[in-house]
Amino acid sequence: MSGVTISPAKILDVDGWNATTLNLYSHSGTHMDAPLHFGVNAQTIDKLPTERLISEAWVVNLTEIKPKEEILISHLGVIADEFKVGQSIILHTGWSKKLGTTAYRDQLPRISVELANWLGEKKVNILGVEPPSVADVNNIDEVTEIHHILMKNDIIIVEGLCNLEQITAKKVTLIALPLKVEGGDGAPSRVIALQQ
Q1: CA-to-CA distance for 178 and 59, rounded, in angstroms?
Q2: In CATH, what is the architecture of 26-194?
Q3: How many CB atoms lie within 10 A of CB 5?
Q4: CB atoms < 10 A from the CB of 49, how many?
Q5: Cβ distance 160 to 30 under 8 Å?
Q6: Domain-by-domain residue ranges, the chain?
Q7: Strand pairing of 88-92 and 126-129?
Q8: How do 110-111 and 156-159 pair as beta strands?
Q9: Which candidate, 193, 123, 120, places its Cα nearest to that of 163?
């Protein structure tokens, strides 16, 4: 995971066990944002209701998306009509395969204002994306606007997903568990999808 450094805290031969000290960026790797991240409200990652961290989620295949392309409502296809309030959406763009390249951060496909507002109107529970952000991280106005729209609509944002090509179902049970960092603006998360 990028953004994490480790150093020895205990050594087996000296202390009787191995242990390390972790120093990590709160938005490294697969992670979840809290509204505090963009100052939308004071909700922190440790205060997210646990019942919201497990939900039914649609998996949208967007692997043909172009670099820097805005993701629109039309990209959802029939899911836009079949979506029910409280469900979640995972956008499978294949972008995680670009990890370690400049394109991963600088050319990511991003959520359009149109889609962000639609997600809010539909009361999406969790929005999961493969890029490190839902918006262009090199454009502070865009990244702020999209996060604000989503967070003001109480949508949980999970960024940096990977291995989505292993999902074959249209709908899965999504489990997204952030580290319970007291007062955290976000945290690395263990995210899994259960398919039947």
Answers
A1: 20
A2: 3-Layer(bba) Sandwich (3.50)
A3: 10
A4: 8
A5: yes
A6: 26-194
A7: parallel
A8: unpaired
A9: 193
107 is written with which tokens?
């050319």
pTM, two decimals, is 0.93
What is the β-pairing status of strands 88-92 and 54-61? parallel
pLDDT tens, position by position, 145-195: 999 999 999 999 999 999 999 999 999 999 999 999 999 999 999 999 999
The per-residue pLDDT for range 31-73, each reduced to its tens digit, is 999 988 988 888 899 999 999 999 999 999 999 999 999 999 9
One DSSP character per residue, 79-118 reads HHHH--TT-EEEEE-SGGGGTTSHHHHHS--EE-HHHHHH
Q: For helices 113-121 and 140-152, give the axis angle rounded to 10 degrees.
A: 10
Structure tokens at 27: 């938005």
